[in-house]
What does this fold into?
Amino acid sequence: MRFEEHNVGKVLVAKVLESRIAADVAPRFKQGLIDYINNGHHVLVLDLSDVTFIDSSGLGALIGSLKAVGNDGELALCGARETVASMFKLTRMNKVFRMFDGPEQAVAALSQ
Amino acid sequence: MKRLELAIDSDLTQVSLAAVAIHRVCLYLGLNDARAGEVELCVAEAVTNSIRHAYHGIPGNRVTIALAASSDRLLIEVCDTGSAMPLESQQRLERSLRTPEVQMCDRTSIPEGGRGLHIIRELMDEVSYTSKHQLNHLVMTKYLAEIPRHEA
It folds into this structure.
C-alpha cells in the first residue's frame, strides 16, 4: 500500500496513492496507518482524493486505525470523491470521521 | 434478456477484476456511474463474503458471478460451493435491517467488520439467499426504472 506523506506542524498528511481500498489490500492499508501511529503520529489527515473505490473491509481498516489513534488523537479524512463519500454516508461513518474537502481545511481544523 | 457469467478463484486479489467488469457492464446497460458503482460494491461485498466465509479464505475454489438484465431489472447471482451462510446472517439479509446509527463519542465500540450484508441490503432492491446440495446462491436485484426499454 503506497502513501505519500508530509508534516504540517503536528499534523501528518498522508495521501493514499492507490485507487482501490478493497478486501485484498485492507490489511496492508491498516498496517500502513498503524505504522504512522506507532511512529508517534497521532494527528493524521488521510487524503483520499485518488481513491475511487472503498469496500467494507477498507472501511473496517479505517475504523481500526481510528481506534488506534486513541481518544486523544485524530484521524481525519479529506478529498473523498462522491462514490467514496456515499459509502461513508451509507454506513453512517460520515458521523464518526471528520471529513474535509481538502488537506488545507483538514490541517487547519486539526491544528486548532 | 442479456446474460453474462464470470468466474474467479476464491482469492481476494481476484475480486476487483470481477467487480470492475460488472461496473463496466452496468454502464453499457445504461446505468449511471453512481448506480453502476453501487452494483460494483455489492458484487465486491458478496464475492468477498463467499471467499472469506464460504471458503474460509482458501484459494483454489470457484466463485461465479452471473448477471442477467431485462428491461426493468438487473439480477446478479453470486454462487459458491463452500460452507453455507450462517442462519443468523441469512435472517439479517431477509429482514430489511437498516444500518444502525452511530454516535461520534462512541469511537471505541464501533465494530470494524460485519457491514457487507448491510451494504448489500441497503443498495439492492431485493436480496435472497439459498443453499441447496452444497451450492450457495446469493441473488441481488436492482430495479432499473431509468433504463430505456430498448437498452435491455
